[in-house]
Write a structure and sequence with these properties.
Layout: E1 10-14, H1 16-24, E2 34-38, H2 52-67, H3 79-95, H4 104-117, H5 122-127, H6 129-133, H7 136-149, E3 161-165, E4 171-172, H8 176-185, E5 196-198, H9 209-220, H10 224-234, E6 247-252, H11 264-273, E7 278-283, H12 296-301, H13 306-320, E8 330-332, H14 345-348
């Protein structure tokens, strides 16, 4: 009984899903009634747009060192535990000619300034400490290199693979108990849930450096594998939405995984330059992972982003019903709840109708 003629279709997504619904917005036809995109991983030409793979591989190399320059980082990770590892990264970067300075402090400042010059905000670098601590930059870079280059199992250009691992990181067979837990506990991006990211190039003193340099070269280099990955990235470039389609984009100003300066801001600018009516909510004190607000320090510092996505969806639905205009562009000044305090509506400051 359901057809496009009798069914309202609003495409809603966050992160990769946010990028997917913005790509759906490009399609012609009257099958899609509106789009609401939260913290979208989207790539456009110009306006400061950068691909996820580009800034992920940059962050994987530079961010551990750059974060040593900042005080009062969110916890975890515990600064005292990771500082020696990050200082080792600073030394490696200096040897590779990627930062300046004669000691860890000067090298960290150099790495921080280099990231800022590349478009990273201080808030994004600060919130990105979670991705650094959980080794997410390396995990994303390795998996996306495979995806963009369309490599099969055992074909990764930098030799990465997935396996259960022994304490010394050598691969082993997964146990039946580990396999049984994958469906419920795995995110799909190792390391995690008993699946490790195998890197044959691990070596002291900076164990992951060689693998990360290989991954970075796929973004900046000119070899056959680099061209293959870069072609895959180019195929993901977004175009403006079709004319007349209501589109609302919501993004956290402190997003440290998909910084809005590289994604939503250039997308909205390009869409508006093409004459499209795209509305944009920029949410202060919001980062990428609402799920990590279960960690007390993150809950104290950041507000969740999903309530704004739900509010925008309600506003778009009302608009399609003929009840009110689309939400206006807004830079939303939120108030972090602070340590040990419950989240209340006043902290969110969601724009009124």
């Amino acid at each position: 009984p359901f057809t496009f003629a009798n069914t309202r279709v609003i495409a809603v997504g966050i992160s990769n899903g946010g990028g997917a619904v913005l790509r759906a917005a490009e399609l012609e036809g009257d099958w899609l009634d509106a789009v609401v995109a939260g913290e979208p991983n989207v790539l456009v030409e110009g306006h400061g747009g950068r691909s996820l793979y580009d800034y992920t591989t940059e962050a994987a190399l530079l961010m551990p060192c750059a974060q040593l320059h900042l005080q009062g980082l969110p916890q975890p990770p515990l600064t005292a535990q990771v500082a020696p590892l990050w200082a080792a990264r600073c030394a490696s970067l200096k040897t590779a000619g990627l930062v300046d300075g004669d000691d860890a402090a000067a090298q960290a400042k150099s790495a921080f300034e280099r990231m800022r010059a590349g478009g990273w905000s201080e808030g994004a670098i600060r919130a990105g400490v979670l991705s650094t601590g959980f080794d997410l930059w390396r995990a994303v870079a390795a998996t996306y290199a495979s995806a963009y280059g369309r490599y099969g199992v055992g074909e990764h250009p930098c030799g990465f693979a997935f396996s259960a691992q022994n304490p010394d990181f050598t691969p082993r067979a997964a146990t039946a108990t580990e396999q049984a837990a994958w469906w419920s506990d795995a995110s799909g991006i190792p390391p995690g849930a008993g699946v490790g990211l195998v890197d044959a190039t691990l070596a002291p003193p900076d164990f992951t450096l060689a693998g990360l340099q290989c991954l970075r070269a796929l973004s900046t280099g000119a070899g056959e594998d680099a061209r293959r990955v870069q072609a895959g990235i180019a195929a993901t470039r977004a175009a403006p939405p079709r004319a007349g389609l209501p589109v609302v984009v919501i993004h956290g100003a402190d997003d440290g995984l998909v910084p809005m300066a590289f994604s939503s801001v250039p997308y909205v600018a390009a869409a508006k330059a093409a004459g499209r009516d795209v509305r944009f909510w920029q949410v202060a004190n919001a980062q990428h992972f609402d799920g990590f607000l279960g960690l007390p320090d993150y809950a104290a510092r950041y507000v969740p982003l999903l309530p704004y996505v739900y509010a925008a969806l309600d506003r778009v639905t009302a608009h399609l019903d003929g009840d009110g205009a689309l939400p206006a562009d807004a830079s939303i000044a939120t108030t972090p709840r602070g340590a040990g305090q419950p989240l209340e509506a006043r902290h969110l400051a969601i724009p009124a109708r």
